[in-house]
Amino acid sequence: MYSGPITCWSRKPMPMAQSRAVVAGGSRMREGSCGTWPYHSRMTPAPTFPPDAATLDGLAARLRDADWAVLTLSADDPLLRAAGAEARELAEAGHLRPAATGRSDDRRFAGLRGDSTLWLDDPACGSAAAALLAALDGLRGELNRRLLLGLDSVEAHFAHYPPGAGYARHRDRFRSDDARVLSLVVYLNPDWPDDAGGALRLHLTEGPLDIAPRLGTIAIFLSESVEHEVLAADRPRFSVAAWFRQRPRGG
Ligand SMILES: O=C(O)CCC(=O)C(=O)O
Ligand SMILES: [Fe+2]
């Protein structure tokens, strides 16, 4: 049960060094190596959800230059922990459904993806889903204010990939629907070992980049341009996939 703040956006000033340290973005990722790199300094604790204003400024600055970023929050973040617990409970209770049978646009992915999903606004969801959806909507508003991308809504679902399941290389924006602008994946897996698999692989011009689905990590990228895939893991993998949307222009 999550009973913490859901829409409180801290304006506490933070040293810029911290916000630079917690956000990694395209042009800085020169090595192109898979795995980890120093998302945040050991000297400063990672922020919690919702991120403070300096972290948001750093994230927005990164997304102005690069088409992807990684935001690392504290692995003790109470909202993320509650969302992870709720995702597991909902999956155990059978509320998540194979993604290919979800909304009509998902049907084309039959055979390409092995996850089961549940939209965060589904009545089966509990307080953590509602709080996370509100926090994501707050993040949408804060990024939109800084980037003026016309982001006017958020959609988000829990996803559960059983061991061995993945999602083949794809882009998140549909040909028939240009509403998705920014993709975010909020990982809900505490203590994810480096050798467990399950990375999100971004296919970038500088090479592939693997992001481990560890609790506290939020991957953010442009829905239209960044091809990506989910690699199979040796254990259940939980996340929230979210999209910040503009009003569809295609009709
Ligand atoms: O879970 C992930 O890392 C990415 C999921 C994804 O690509 C999607 O749902 O479109
Ligand atoms: Fe995707």
From TrEMBL:
SMART domains: P4Hc. Residues 150-248 form the Fe2OG dioxygenase domain. The keyword Secreted does not apply. GO terms for biological process: cellular response to hypoxia. Gene3D superfamilies: q2cbj1_9rhob like domain (2.60.120.620). The keyword Transcription does not apply. It comes from the Bacteria. One of its GO terms (molecular function) is L-ascorbic acid binding. InterPro entries: HIF_prolyl_hydroxylases (IPR051559), Oxoglu/Fe-dep_dioxygenase_dom (IPR005123), Pro_4_hyd_alph (IPR006620), Pro_4_hyd_alph_FE2OG_OXY (IPR044862). Keywords: Dioxygenase, Iron, Metal-binding, Oxidoreductase, Vitamin C. Its cofactor is L-ascorbate. This is 2OG-Fe(II) oxygenase. It comes from Arenimonas terrae.
